[in-house]
Structure formats: structure tokens, C-alpha cells
Design a protein that fits this description.
It is built from 4 helices and 9 strands. It is α/β, with parallel strands linked by helices. It has one domain.
């Protein structure tokens, strides 16, 4: 709802257009990044850094087959309010996981061969991971 208000309200109008790229989903598969905008168009880049605007992700993040891509995505993300999270073959920190699940709206979380570590490099207990997923079923 806040997104719609920011786009249409005259008090949030920006001279150079809306400052973020609002996307429905972002997927990383190997060395290809695929993102889908709200109007259904799909775009792909070899480097996510090539996009000039930061992402506002509203539905899905899928990171597979390339280790440590979560940090790259989070550097280019301003809002991550997603419903579905899929991490396959990832090594991420608990802080990164909390940023990916920040909106508290994740309903589906698929973790395959993924390691989530704390600041000391130790595996995070499952209970702490579930606390970040209050709406998951």
C-alpha cells in the first residue's frame, strides 16, 4: 500500500521519476540475474550491478547455484518485502537472512544445501531462523 501511495501522491513525486525499480521477483541462476517488473516484463543481466536503480522487491527472491550472491543482491536492494524465498547452495550470514525476510511476510521459505551462519561463523539454530518467518507454513 505504501508503494502505491508513493507512486501516485504528489508529495512523493520525484523529478527524475521514482528512485527505485519495483520488481515482483529477482532470480539468480548461475551467472544470470532475471527480474520481473510489475507489468510482467522480464529482464536479464549478467551483473546485477549494471542496473542503475536499487530494487524494491515485493514478491519473490530465488538464489540458486551461485554461492554468496545474497550479499550482491542486498547491496542493490532498498526494500525486500517478499512472500517467497528460495535459497539453494548458498552460504549467508544471519544478518543477510534477516534482511531478506525483513518484512515478516515470507510464507514460503525453501532452503536447500544452504548454510546460515552467525558473526562467529557458527551455524544459526533453527529456532532463530523460524523467528524470522512468523507467517511461514
Amino acid at each position: 500500500m505504501a508503494l502505491k501511495l508513493m507512486i501516485v501522491c504528489k508529495y512523493f513525486q520525484h523529478k527524475n521519476g521514482f528512485p527505485y525499480l519495483v520488481v515482483k521477483s529477482v532470480k539468480s541462476c548461475g551467472n544470470i540475474w532475471i527480474y520481473q517488473t510489475l507489468d510482467g516484463h522480464r529482464y536479464s543481466n549478467q551483473k546485477i550491478e549494471d542496473n542503475s536503480k536499487k530494487f524494491w522487491i515485493i514478491d519473490e527472491v530465488e538464489l540458486v547455484f551461485s554461492e554468496n550472491v545474497a550479499s550482491t543482491l542486498l547491496l542493490k536492494t532498498v526494500v525486500c518485502n517478499i512472500r517467497k524465498l528460495k535459497l539453494d547452495n548458498q552460504i549467508i550470514t544471519f544478518d543477510q537472512f534477516k534482511l531478506l525476510t525483513d518484512g515478516g511476510n515470507v510464507e514460503i521459505c525453501d532452503l536447500m544445501e544452504t548454510v546460515i551462519t552467525d558473526n562467529n561463523g557458527e551455524c544459526v539454530p533453527l529456532e532463530d531462523i523460524f523467528e524470522c518467518l512468523p507467517n511461514a507454513f
